[in-house]
Design goal:
This protein is an alpha+beta fold and 279 residues long. The chain folds into 2 domains: 120 residues, no CATH class; 132 residues, 2-Layer Sandwich (Zincin-like). It is built from 9 helices and 8 strands. It has a 3-stranded antiparallel beta sheet with strand order 1-4-3. Strands 6-8-7 form a 3-stranded mixed beta sheet, with helices on one face. Strands 2-5 form a two-stranded antiparallel ribbon. Strand 7 and strand 8 form a beta hairpin. Helix 5 runs parallel beside helix 6, helix 6 packs across helix 7 and helix 6 crosses helix 9. The longest helix has 23 residues. It is globular and about 60 Å long.
Length: 279
């Protein structure tokens, strides 16, 4: 009973956290926070943020111990949700097929984790943050690299007043050739998010434009922040005025997390394509 009550309290905290984040200026802070925690589920990013907004790296007590660190005395655990999985046998489809097992989600349990700042011991190496801005050679090289790594053609041309666009029919991304490199990088991610979320057959294909633009810009902000760019001055104008329906906001939030993670993983992998994109 005690565990069930604790789980119910976490779920209540989750709903409250969603409302507080999605219906206030905290949404901007959460997006920045998400750039560090993009590998976690939407629910767990909300739970971690609502309990410790300055968290940078969380692990369980024993996981920290394996890393040569111990949790400081008196530190309060951060409670997150972990899936409960069980194996289920599938019926034979063919006479010559053996029995198959599939993993089935049947619920959640809460687990305790602690942030790096709540521990002490062996030094943990931290990745260097790239602080990139302007039109330097480093930015231009990154633009070339990202244009090759994403799995949709990219062209640079005069796109009029728009910074760029995703062509729904011909399936390519166009970036304005005369914008700053930093703006081109952000636009590339914004339009790639449109491709992943809003192309024909995609989950949010039929969503209204206001939501589509907010989704794409939120993803662009998270990805850019992950790689060391602060686009808040530009991005947050896009993200104002969202729906106040918590259910809708939760679903949108889940897909911001998934899409951001997808793009960050793509950009961290070796390039599949070898051609040079003309910029």
């Amino acid at each position: 009973m005690a565990k069930q009550k604790a789980l119910e309290e976490i779920n209540q905290q989750l709903e409250q956290g969603i409302q507080e984040i999605m219906m206030s200026e905290k949404f901007q802070e959460w997006l920045k926070f998400l750039s560090t925690f993009h590998t976690y589920s939407f629910n767990n990013t909300v739970l971690i943020y609502s309990q410790k907004a300055d968290a940078t790296l969380v692990k369980g007590f024993n996981e920290w111990k394996k890393d040569g660190r111990i949790v400081k005395k008196g530190e309060k655990a951060i409670k997150i949700l972990a899936p409960l999985i069980r194996k289920q046998r599938e019926e034979k489809k063919e006479e010559n097929e053996g029995e198959k097992e599939k993993k089935v989600l049947y619920g959640f349990r809460y687990v305790n984790v602690f942030d790096l700042s709540q521990t002490e011991g062996k030094e943990i190496p931290t990745p260097e943050v790239k602080m990139l801005e302007g039109d330097g050679e480093q930015e231009k090289a990154l633009l070339q690299e990202w244009s090759i790594k994403i799995d949709i053609p990219v062209v640079f041309k005069d796109t009029g007043e728009a910074n760029g666009y995703f062509h729904l029919v011909e399936n390519y991304i166009a970036i304005h050739q005369n914008r700053s490199t930093t703006q081109q990088l952000k636009t590339l991610i914004h339009e790639y998010a449109h491709y992943l979320l809003h192309a024909k057959g995609a989950k949010f294909e039929k969503e209204n434009r206001r939501i589509k633009e907010a989704q794409a810009e939120a993803v662009a902000y998270v990805v850019m922040n992950h790689f060391g760019y602060d686009t808040s001055q530009y991005s947050f104008g896009y993200i104002a005025g969202w729906s106040k329906d918590v259910t809708i906001m939760k679903q949108i939030g889940e897909d911001i997390v998934k899409c951001s993670h997808h793009i960050i993983e793509d950009l961290n992998k070796p390039a599949k394509k070898t051609e040079v994109v003309k910029i």
